[in-house]
Write a structure and sequence with these properties.
With 284 residues, this protein is mainly α. It has two domains: 171 residues, protein kinase ck2 holoenzyme, chain C, domain 1 (Orthogonal Bundle), CATH 1.10.1820; 84 residues, N-terminal domain of TfIIb (Single Sheet). The chain has a three-stranded antiparallel beta sheet with strand order 1-2-3, with no helix packed on it. Strands 4-5 form a two-stranded antiparallel sheet. α5 crosses α6.
Length: 284
């Protein structure tokens, strides 16, 4: 378990919004400075690299890393949230990786698990260090690199590192799902309707795909793209609706349908016709 129950539970949505704004501003300020780095070796052979947290997992009292992007549920949602949190972490034990833990959080159903080998290849992470503050610490957290330097950070800095880890994983995820392995993982989710169905009546429950309206972080939230009507919609879940669209990017749904052409449906032929007393409304 990576976070305590208080990480997800909250009393008011306004508090969550203020908290997200505060952390985002702090991350932006940190990014303007020189981000602290570690002398890290990612090939798995050298375990003497610097780490963030003592032990394999961060302590339970730290906040949920998703608090940057997700609103805190109100009082009536607390009991449901607590029970779902226990379902996620109660049986995981100490062997759960950060990636598995993150992808199984409520609201993160759109994410697939990125292979460690992909993340450990520096070529795949090219350019991300300039976009994410606390880059090396965040990367160590994602890869479960054990730390003996957790005492170096204040509680606020730990919050920023956790938020940076979420952002870094999201940007890595956007690249990974364009690979053959990533698309195969997303294909399984597509077949299981994990991304939801099109809300349009004449699309007849067509499965959708996650899509971003921008590849730049914090520009817009994720939407779902319907390949039948070729339009985008807000996800049903308010938790999914707060995920950054850049974590999926603008390319994925279209490249996915090009790769798996047999899944591309026929365009919707029917459309709603407005009527008044049974007569079609004249369009000027």
């Amino acid at each position: 378990m990576y976070r305590g129950e208080g990480a997800v539970g909250g009393s008011k949505g306004e508090v969550g919004a203020v908290d997200r704004k505060r952390i985002n501003e702090a991350l932006d300020k940190q990014l303007e400075r020189s981000s602290p780095s570690t002398s890290r070796v990612i090939n798995g052979k050298d375990k003497s690299a610097r780490y963030l947290f003592p032990g394999k997992h961060p302590p339970d009292h730290h906040r949920d890393s998703r608090s940057v992007s997700l609103p805190k549920p109100n009082a009536k949602d607390e009991s449901e949230t607590d029970s779902e949190e226990s379902d996620v972490s109660g049986s995981d034990g100490d062997d759960t990786s950060w990636i598995s833990w993150f992808c199984n959080l409520r609201g993160n159903e759109f994410f697939c698990e990125v292979d460690d080998d992909y993340i450990q290849d520096d070529f795949n992470l090219c350019g991300l260090s300039s976009q994410v503050p606390y880059y090396d610490y965040a990367l160590d957290l994602i890869l479960d690199v054990e730390s003996s330097h957790g005492d170096m950070f204040t509680e606020e800095q730990n919050e920023l590192v956790e938020s940076a880890a979420e952002m870094l994983y999201g940007l890595i995820h956007a690249r990974y799902i364009l690979t053959s392995k990533g698309m195969a993982a997303m294909l399984d989710k597509y077949k299981n309707y994990d991304f939801g169905r099109c809300p349009r009546v004449y699309c007849c429950g067509q499965p959708c795909l996650p899509a971003g309206q921008s590849d730049t972080p914090r520009s817009s939230t994720v939407k779902i793209y319907c390949p039948r009507c070729e339009d985008i919609y807000y996800p049903r879940s308010k938790y999914q609706g707060n995920i950054d669209g850049a974590y999926f990017g603008t390319t994925f749904p279209h490249l996915f349908l090009m790769t798996y052409g047999h899944l591309k449906p026929q365009k919707a032929s029917q459309s709603y016709v407005p009527r008044v007393f049974g007569f079609k409304i004249h369009k000027p």
